[in-house]
Amino acid sequence: MEGIDDHLKMNLDILFVGFNPSIRSGETGHHYANPNNRFWKILHESGLTPRKYAPDEDLTLLDLGYGFTNIVSRPTKGADDITKAEYSKGREQLKAKIEKYKPKLVCFVGKGVYQEYRQSRHIAWGLQEDPLSNATMEFVAPSSSGLVRMKIEEIIEIYRELPILLDKPVTERTAK
């Protein structure tokens, strides 16, 4: 199964980065398309979108300044099916995308995604103190998968930090 298209443009407010597309996303060609995934609800209830969008509207979020990609493009049933070689290749591709498109903030949708990206295990939720680029903030949020054991209210609360970060002046956002 082929990967799904990235939704990218220059200077996005937020680039959302997932592990890889689900089988459902691979079938439909849309990000976060699995009906058990709570991504669209989380975006709306955290104040990032004016309404709850559907997966087939993912491309329209570029108009709001939000883009989508994954660290690995191959759809799988779960992140456990991703190989070390795929992560290594994906890590380099993701770094190149961030460098090229220069989003204000990269939101890693899942701690494990960020762990693979930065090759680090000790990561807290929220804004990261040592981004790879001074031009882009790095933010770690819980996965929106229905398999996550956190309460949805706790997840939404973490995502509520995103619009607050975007309202800060650039010097405050990139300060270490």
Automatic annotation (TrEMBL):
PANTHER family linked: G/T AND G/U MISMATCH-SPECIFIC DNA GLYCOSYLASE, G_T MISMATCH-SPECIFIC THYMINE DNA GLYCOSYLASE
Protein's GO biological process: base-excision repair, AP site formation
Lineage start: Bacteria, Bacillati, Bacillota, Bacilli, Bacillales
Alphabetized InterPro entries for the sequence: MUG/TDG, Uracil-DNA_glycosylase-like, Uracil-DNA_glycosylase-like_sf
GO molecular function: pyrimidine-specific mismatch base pair DNA N-glycosylase activity; uracil DNA N-glycosylase activity
Name of the protein in question: DNA glycosylase
Keywords in alphabetical order: DNA damage, DNA repair, Hydrolase
Domain Uracil-DNA glycosylase-like: start-end pairs: 9-151
